[in-house]
């Protein structure tokens, strides 16, 4: 089986690169092990949120000060804003309504009410320009009765600390009460399936109207539909302004991003090999000539170009034992401290060195193997070294911008 480009890894970076190539006419195959880390995503894309423990207001200014080893620094400065706009356009073409811009961060709310700088956020989720924006506002946290993955006590305390007057309440409907008969049904994904139906949204709106009188804003868990974004439908039926806040994983917002991007790939003819992993790569000189996968066994998949976007430790793109850290798919060179004692910091909230470990690449994102660059292979996203994605709030931005940079490298050959 021969393709123009084969992408290994079906997370945000892999899907972004595949989408860019497919919409530009390439024959693309995407090998994905299954559910991606987007199931843990808040519904936001972060460019650069923190630097040396301080909030970054203007991401591009902060990026210019990052260490030379950071993946962003391998992208030409004048291209960063261009690629950021292309990322926004791609999400819109996939059917995702996002708010925000790359010039200045806004704040999103975590499930416990922490304010985190972000670049783009789904339109149904609440965002703040400043942390003082809610001062003096009367807020109702309206939770679905029996739903435990939206910690309203923590959220209420955080919002109260911002100066808001907060009250919590719960509601249910006939459909949601039916779901509650089984405790396993009261998870975000299952609730969202019930709220995909217009009638069930109308019933929920009636209950929210009953509770929401006299409030400036009603905040709901982000569970309003999995296949459809039903927030606009609910807002038209509720008298008080409504915004949503991300829940604990699994995240309906993150799954919606994944589903929309998957749908976009299908529309543009990309071949997606689901629930499969690469188990071997065949090299000749400085090129990768073919790969095999667990499911296809002896069938060799061949392409002119290959892209590795398998992620970091969470998704299995990097693995460790007591002595070493390795990249398991193609056995590429990894940048990491040799001594295990240097992998972590003693204090939990310090920057953890292992989070910046990853595949070693050239400035053009070509990975290294046996001391030389593989010239028709690229690495993108969280598998790259030099990025502490959680500490810096850069993970999703690095995924999208390095994927777009590599897509341009491939298309310009």
UniProtKB/TrEMBL annotation:
Single Gene Ontology MF annotation: glycerol-3-phosphate dehydrogenase (quinone) activity
Gene Ontology, cellular component aspect: glycerol-3-phosphate dehydrogenase (FAD) complex
Domain of life, per lineage: Bacteria
The UniProt record lists the keyword Flavoprotein: yes
FAD-dependent oxidoreductase 2 FAD-binding domain sequence ranges: 4-398
NCBIfam families associated with the record: glycerol3P_GlpB, PRK05329.1-2, PRK05329.1-3
Protein name: Glycerol-3-phosphate dehydrogenase, anaerobic, B subunit
Source organism of the structure: Segatella maculosa OT 289
């Amino acid at each position: 089986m021969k393709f123009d480009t084969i992408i290994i890894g079906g997370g945000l970076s892999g899907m972004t690169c595949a989408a860019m190539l497919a919409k530009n006419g390439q024959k693309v195959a995407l090998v994905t092990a299954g559910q991606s880390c987007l199931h843990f995503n808040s519904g936001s894309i972060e460019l650069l949120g923190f630097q040396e423990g301080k909030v970054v207001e203007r991401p591009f200014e902060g990026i210019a000060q990052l260490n030379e080893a950071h993946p962003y620094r391998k992208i030409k400065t004048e291209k960063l804003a261009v690629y950021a706009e292309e990322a926004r356009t791609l999400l819109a073409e996939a059917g995702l309504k996002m708010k925000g811009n790359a010039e200045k961060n806004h704040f999103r709310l975590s499930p416990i009410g922490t304010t985190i700088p972000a670049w783009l956020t789904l339109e149904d989720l609440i965002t703040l320009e400043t942390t003082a924006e809610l001062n003096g506002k009367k807020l109702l946290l309206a939770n679905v009765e029996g739903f435990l993955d939206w910690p309203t006590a923590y959220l209420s305390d955080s919002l109260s600390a911002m100066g808001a007057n907060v009250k919590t309440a719960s509601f249910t409907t006939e459909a949601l009460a039916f779901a509650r008969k089984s405790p396993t049904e009261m998870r975000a994904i299952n609730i969202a399936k019930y709220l995909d139906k217009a009638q069930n949204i109308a019933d929920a709106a009636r209950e929210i109207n009953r509770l929401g009188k006299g409030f400036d804003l009603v905040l709901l868990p982000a569970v309003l539909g999995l296949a459809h974004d039903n927030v606009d439908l609910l807002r038209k039926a509720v008298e008080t302004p409504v915004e949503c806040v991300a829940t604990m994983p699994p995240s309906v917002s993150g799954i919606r991003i994944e589903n929309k991007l998957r749908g976009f790939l299908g529309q543009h003819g990309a071949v997606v090999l689901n629930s499969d992993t690469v188990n071997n790569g065949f090299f000749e000189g400085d090129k990768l000539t073919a790969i095999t996968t667990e499911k296809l066994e002896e069938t060799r998949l061949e392409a002119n170009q290959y892209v590795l976007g398998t992620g970091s430790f969470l998704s299995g793109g990097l693995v460790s034992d007591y002595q070493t850290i390795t990249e398991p798919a193609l056995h590429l060179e990894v940048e990491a401290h040799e001594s295990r004692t240097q992998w972590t910091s003693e204090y939990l909230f310090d920057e953890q060195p292992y989070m910046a470990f990853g595949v070693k690449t050239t400035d053009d994102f070509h990975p290294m193997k046996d001391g030389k660059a593989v010239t028709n292979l690229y690495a993108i996203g969280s598998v790259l070294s030099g990025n502490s994605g959680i500490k810096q709030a850069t993970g999703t931005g690095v995924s999208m911008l390095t994927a777009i940079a590599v897509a341009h490298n491939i298309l310009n050959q």
